[in-house]
Design a protein that fits this description.
This protein is mostly helical. Helices cover about 50% and strands about 5% of the residues. The protein has a two-stranded antiparallel ribbon. α2 runs antiparallel to α3 and α2 runs antiparallel to α4. The longest helix is centred in the last third of the chain and has 33 residues. It is elongated and about 65 Å long. The two termini are about 20 Å apart.
Length: about 140
């Protein structure tokens, strides 16, 4: 009997990939906290994950390629996550037009990193269970 990893891992695989992309976006925000005119962005996690789960593939998790120097997916395509990437509305906008609020970005990054680790731990235990089944429950 074949094991269907999509069913075995469920939505957690897409969640892990989406959390990775969100970490990248939040890290870019933190790195540009002092860049005049930089607009902070974030991923609407629930929308992106539900779109990804509904699509049934990981095409929604790839970042938009706007330059020939950007990386492509392994299959050579470059579909966009841009539908779920939104600009963050600042509580206190700065005079130079930068919308990054470092304390908020750091808190969101820490929360997302914790959730990434939790998802990774869950997937690890799920795979460990599958390994145990395949080995005959030794």
């Amino acid at each position: 009997m074949a094991i269907n990893f999509d069913k075995a891992l469920g939505v957690h695989e897409q969640a892990l990939l989406l959390r990775q992309k969100r970490n990248e976006v939040l890290a870019a925000n933190i790195a540009n906290a002092d860049t005049p005119g930089y607009k902070a962005q974030d991923i609407d996690f629930r929308t992106a994950l539900s779109n990804s789960a509904a699509a049934g593939d990981q095409a929604m998790l790839a970042l938009k390629v706007t330059s020939a120097g950007h990386q492509h997916r392994a299959d050579g395509s470059a579909d966009a996550l841009s539908a779920s990437l939104k600009y963050r509305q600042p509580y206190q906008p700065s005079l130079d037009g930068n919308t990054v609020e470092a304390h908020i970005e750091q808190a969101e990054f820490a929360d997302n990193a914790m959730r990434y680790q939790a998802t990774l731990s869950f997937l690890g235990s799920r795979l460990s269970g599958l390994k145990s089944i395949l080995q005959g429950g030794r």
